[in-house]
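Bench log, entry 3. Co-assembly request; chain sequences pasted below exactly as received.
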Amino acid sequence: MSTATALIGGCAMVTVAIKAAGPAALGGRDLPAWFQSVVVLLAPALLAALVVTQTLAHDGHLHVGANAFGVLAGGIVAWRTGSVIGCVVVAAAVTAILRAV
Amino acid sequence: MDRNTRFRAGLREGLAFAVAAGVTGVSFGIVAQEAGLSQWAAIAMSLIVFAGSAQFTAVAIVASGGGAGTAVVAAALINSRFLPMGVALAQSLPGGPLRRGVQGQAVIDASWALANRGDGTFDRWRLFGATAVQYVGWGGGTIAGALGGSALGDPNSLGLDAVYPAFFVALLVHELRDGRARGVAALGALIALALVPFTPAGVPVLVASLAALVGLRRRAVAEAAA
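Structure output for the full assembly:
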């Protein structure tokens, strides 16, 4: 088996297993109320963690670069206007401008 | 709303993410070949695995001389965030374990967040729609990058690496109108940042999901008061 086949097959199998685990194991029955109150809070926890890691983490180091300022500017736009597209456009534009200067 | 309307709403809402996935897919098509994969292997990987950050991490490990086993473990850690997402989604999927597991394959970050109704339930047709359009974007981008080569410039000079986190910021802002969610978001961000220097990529986001356990404490307080 070539490296590429092992790589693609292995990545596919672990991804399918991870994505299937929760729905296969936990669906189809009523779960207690406390479970629901945790589920509601998973979105803010995961989204916040994704934002800071994608913006500030580079190969195991924390680094504040142009994209951090771009995302911050986009966040202010989203907070003030509620516009998703405005947030993304401002974030990319500020990042690109800071990199160009 | 019937399922067609919700599916189309998912397609529409996922479109902007699909464009971003397309651009990112182009750079994956190029990077994967630089890492030693054939153009067909790069395309096959995107169509079969369909997990952007895990794919980038896996080919980077192979490119730096690591084995396929190491790369697969790293990809699993990156994708481990889909575990809590799937746990949250489980109640909103009909059918037996197998059918629910198959539907769970539609979970990717943006679709999961878009399908979240905010009350602990998820709109599965919106999830499917948003994922379908991003699958086309990611696969199409990879094909363009793998076959078209590096005619395109560096996407980072255009600020495109800010696109995904900016999307998530916009979705997060929507969540933060609620005071308790604000505290959980801050805790999740702190946990992730604290772990970045010490753990492999992917672990910080997985552990940050534990911030949602704050939901337990609040209930205990409410019961004590009642």
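DSSP finds twelve helices and no strands in chain B. Chain B has one domain: 3-225.
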